[in-house]
Specification:
2 copies of one chain form a homodimer.
Chain A: H1 8-26, E1 31-32, H2 34-41, H3 45-55, E2 65-66, H4 67-77, E3 84-89, H5 93-100, H6 103-106, E4 109-116, E5 125-126, E6 129-133, H7 137-143, E7 148-151, H8 158-167, E8 172-175, E9 188-191, H9 194-206
Parallel strand pairs in A: 3-4, 3-7, 4-6, 7-8, 8-9
Antiparallel strand pairs in A: 1-2, 5-6
């Protein structure tokens, strides 16, 4: 795999491919044509072909895709053969919903620890996940070998908390706050901005649907 | 604006631009250089220039960007001069968190109605939003002129509920379930897959950071 040229957009589709081939395997499907694949995941064939060519995967002309082969391929690519523990920081409404969200149903990711400053919930267990005091974050992340955090604090605590995460050695932050946080270059931040998602959807509905397709 | 050629990736960044210029306006900034803009929103200058050229926006060489002008420009482009009401379907943990999530703080979108099948919560008001029975969805959406829904039901109810939304005349669905739903071509579905987001972030951390940048 020639890593350096895989575009971000392709990488973002990897979990979709992985999950769909896993689904096919679970229901006993052995192979699938490229047309069926496109229809099943609602991504056009040309995009799929381009993605797969970046990855060095893996269809035979006139045969289609071998489901078991592709499950193994994407599993390895996404490191799904090992479990990844992550932490959640900020146990408010959204934080609680994410603790309850069954990430491990469709991925090998698990929230193993949560952090908050509220003495009422520090020391409790929420949806099976222990809640620690923010003061313990550096120690706990080291102990539990966690370097990815989900950030669900309030907007006004976002930057301050991000600083604490960086200080604790975190390498990746999935940021649910609408704040763009400043972190060193060696820390990667992905944004899940729920208002953005809604606005973008509404934009598409309001404008000509002849825009190129999702 | 030559609508037909604006790429999806650009459209997805519109809310980011809008929000940042709004933030600058709120703090009294009048103009900003393209370098400062790139730094502030963590998007590289070349991408910003390309995006703005698609949109027909709006910087003067050697001057930078006029903040007020750009707030107005993006506000109009995103229809932020009118409020959009949306509905939420499925008032579980995630649904409740989204009802509580202050979309209107950073956008002109508001959740105006929620729907569920649980008789215990139908008829209640959650975070200021009335919860209706699913049976009333067609009537309520018509009455309230809502054509965008947030889908936060459980996975096994996703397709069935999507069918009901289509039947009720919904044009856009923001789907938080990990299920790819089948809908007619005139209905647009955007996916927010939280496990995907985590997997993608972890993929980036595990692989060479010489991949092109977010």
């Amino acid at each position: 795999m020639t890593e350096n040229i895989v575009p971000n957009a392709t990488i973002k589709r990897l979990p979709i491919y992985y999950r769909y081939f896993q689904f096919l395997k679970d229901e006993g499907t052995k192979k699938i044509s490229s047309g069926e694949l496109a229809e099943g995941i609602k991504i056009d064939s040309a995009t799929i072909r381009r993605d797969f060519s970046y990855l060095g995967a893996l269809g035979k002309r006139g045969y289609g895709y071998d489901v078991n082969e592709l499950v193994d391929f994407f599993k390895k690519l996404l490191n799904q053969d090992r479990r990844t523990n992550v932490a959640l920081v900020g146990v408010g409404n959204l934080g609680n919903a994410l603790l309850n969200y069954n990430f491990s149903r469709t991925s090998n990711v698990r929230i193993a620890a949560a952090f908050d400053i509220d003495p009422e919930i520090v020391g409790t267990v929420k949806s099976g996940v222990p809640v620690y005091d923010m003061n313990e974050i550096k120690e706990q992340l080291e102990l539990q070998q966690i370097d990815v955090c989900i950030l669900t604090v309030s907007s006004n605590a976002a930057q301050k908390t991000a600083n604490m995460l960086v200080d604790a050695g975190v390498k990746g932050i999935l940021n649910f706050t609408p704040i763009i946080v400043n972190v060193p270059n060696n820390v990667r931040v992905h944004y899940v901005d729920l208002a953005n998602e809604l606005q973008t959807l509404i934009y598409f509905l309001d404008h000509d649907s002849s825009l190129d397709h999702e």
